[in-house]
Amino acid sequence: MNTDIPALPDRLVFFDGHCHFCNGSVNFVQKRDKRKRIFYSPLQGSTASRVLPHLDANHPESVVYLRKGKVYYKSSAALMIARDLDGLWPLFSILFVVPAFIRDMLYTYFANHRYHWFGRRESCKIPEPWEKQYYLP
Questions:
Q1: Which long-range CB contacts under 8 A does 68-71 form with residues at least 24 apart?
Q2: CA angle 57, 63, 64 (to 5 degrees)
Q3: How confident is the model at residue 7 (pLDDT cuts 50, 70, 90)?
Q4: Which of 11, 58, 59 is CA-nearest to residue 37?
Q5: What phi and psi values does residue 58 have, to the nearest 5 degrees?
Q6: pLDDT attached to residue 9
Q7: Is beta strand 70-73 parallel, antiparallel or unpaired with respect to 64-67?
Q8: What is the pLDDT of residues 54-107, one digit of tens each?
Q9: Which pTM was predicted?
Q10: Whole-angstrom Cα distance, residue 62 to residue 81?
Q11: Which tens digits make up the pLDDT trace of 25-57?
Q12: Distance between CA atoms of residues 106 and 101, nearest Å
């Protein structure tokens, strides 16, 4: 057993580090996670390549949410993240009544156009000093 691999937090968002919208979404989540339970890692990083080796980091098509050992993709990931936020955001989990294939169809349409609509960064976000403790490589 490899003891060099650190334990993962209970709540970990894997996001497209090159996507302006995705980085903005991470900022949005950080502000609404008052209890600071959620951690973040770019899909292009070493943590994602270790935990999600089946994903193509060069063409990420989904946010991924690792919550208490279970992996959520696309719209389910977004809704589970909302469920873990403070305030009224957990109410969005009512959208789980919509079948996943419909939610994911809309999610995929948006994801396929996000670079065109919001732009693409050349490199992943460098966390501010106060937020570094919530980011994994």
A1: 68/10, 68/11
A2: 85
A3: confident
A4: 11
A5: -80, -20
A6: 94
A7: antiparallel
A8: 887 777 788 999 999 999 999 999 999 999 999 999 999 999 999 999 999 999
A9: 0.89
A10: 13
A11: 999 999 999 999 999 999 999 999 999 988 877
A12: 9
- Tokens for 19? 């996507």
Quote the crossing angle between the two packed helices 100-118 and 74-83, to the nearest 10°: 90
CA angle 135, 113, 40 (to 5 degrees): 10
Question: Could you say which DSSP state residue 41 is in?
Answer: E
Residues contacting residue 55 through CB under 8 Å, at least 6 positions apart: 43, 48, 64
Q: What is the pLDDT of residue 2?
A: 41
- C-alpha 54: how far from chain center: 16
